[in-house]
Input
Amino acid sequence: MRTLLTDAVRTLLPRGEERHGPLPPLLLTMTVVTGLVDSVSYLALGHVFVANMTGNVVFLGFALGGAESLSALASVVSMTAFLLGALAGGRLGTRFAMHRGHLLRAATAVQTMLVAVTVVVAAVADGRVTTSVQYTLIVFLGLAMGLQNAVARRLGVPDLTTTVLTLTLTGLAADSTPAGGEAPRPGRRILSVLAMFLGALVGAALLLHGHLVLVLSLILVLLAVTSVTSHFLSAADAPWLRPRP
Output
């Protein structure tokens, strides 16, 4: 328990000499964003995911197999947008390959702009999700999440992919002491799970009361804060800014 708590504290409040510096708490914030985004896509946009592509592939199979509550078109559009976003994230990763702070700042700035479009569209529609609003939000959120996934992958902070928890949960069990493992980073892994859970919980609670614009605005604020924070933290020449070995 002591190891778990110590690891959790060091994840939330990293010390100056930490290899990844302030990246863990910033990526945890983006993990909360993922929970919020997928609550929007699943609960408000017709049972589709824009961050969890494993779910989308399965949904596509269900839809093509005749499940009437699912849309094959929505899944295809979401996956296409996600892949385009990941492509853009890969290009950003190449451009800022030598500076992780600038990479995160640029990525979250682009995400902020993409999500800003969804806020405007939802606000103009007064929260009503017509077909045009549905697909506009799927495309722009899918682009944002594909970008986020690619950049988190390039940043390479262990157990903080921001969008995928399957391996994180597997690691919690498979690497645990009862399994004969050394249980590395248990606090970080649990915080990652809790962050996405928190985003999904808050998003669902707001969406089920008709607050689509509010949820999108919350996503916008979290990404903007992450981008601005990354900008200021990147000013110094700290070891964490350099690409991982």
The CA atoms of residues 206 and 215 lie 7 Å apart.
